[in-house]
Amino acid sequence: MTIPPAEAVNPTGNSSTHAQVLSPATHLEFVAIEVAVLAAEFVRTQHGSARAAGTKSTPTDVVTETDLASETLIRNEIAARCPGSTVIGEEYDDTIGANTISWIVDPIDGTVNFLYGLPVVSISVAARIGGETVAGAVTDLLSGNTFSATASGGARLNGAPLQTSQPASLATSLIGTGFAYQANVRSEQAETLTRLLPACRDIRCMGSAALNLCWVGAGLLDGYFERDIKLYDYAAGELIAREAGAVVRLPAESGNGLAFAASAAIAGELFELVNS
């Protein structure tokens, strides 16, 4: 697919967006894009020189000083644009607001990649109203490309519409996945791969759930599945994949269960294989 330039990001496709009367979801999409792009610009300056600040669930579940600084930046930018909102992030306690808008943010999705200087890293920002995700944006850190969507309003890459792939079969499909930090869960995931690998074209594990979901929406992957990911990992990406036409299934917000997105052409067969 031809990717429009990152500097052209605009959910309405019109340079006078701020002069228009926007729907609530489109306004929130615009805010999500602005904040994700700002955070990506900051995080990009630290890529290749990150320093670990500690670990979380396991010794392999690392957090860097940049994760913390990025989430602080995101929270400040949201407060400036949508005061009174609730903010739920990966690194800090929830901020409970006075209005009905909640923001779900991942300040760096792909922290291990970021720590090692690998290129698959993203910033994810999603907005909810009444428990429903209505807008979201995911910015690819190094390219600057931004995926975005609104509920019932379609998905976009740098403002241009997205649509999922239509593979002929699972056998010709490229599938993305990721692995949990807990060893016992990884053991179960390995068993899933032994069923899936002979049935598809190939499997990729690239380290950012948000980007994997967006790539399904863009047709760069035909499907994606992963266990043990959290709300902040998938909130924006699942909306983008779904609005681009993917079949999406979500885990519990605790992370228990399977996150899944795939082209409708292979969704049934793929889900049966990975959810056995």
Describe the structure.
- The chain is of the alpha+beta class.
- It folds into 2 domains: 6-161, Fructose-1,6-Bisphosphatase, subunit A, domain 1 (Fructose-1,6-Bisphosphatase, Chain A, domain 1); 170-274, 3-Layer(aba) Sandwich (D-Maltodextrin-Binding Protein, domain 2).
- Helix content is 32%, strand content 25%.
- The chain contains 7 helices and 14 strands.
- The chain has helices spanning 24-44, 65-81, 111-116, 183-196, 209-218, 231-243, 267-274, and strands at residues 52-55, 62-64, 86-89, 101-109, 122-129, 132-140, 146-150, 154-157, 160-161, 174-177, 202-205, 223-227, 247-249, 258-262.
- The strands form 3 sheets. The chain has a 7-stranded mixed β-sheet with strand order 3-4-5-6-7-8-9. A 5-stranded mixed β-sheet has the order 11-10-12-14-13, with helices on both faces. Strands 1-2 form a two-stranded antiparallel ribbon.
- Helix 1 (24-44) packs antiparallel against helix 2 and helix 5 packs parallel to helix 6.
- The chain is globular and about 50 Å long.
- The model is unreliable at 14-19 (pLDDT under 50).
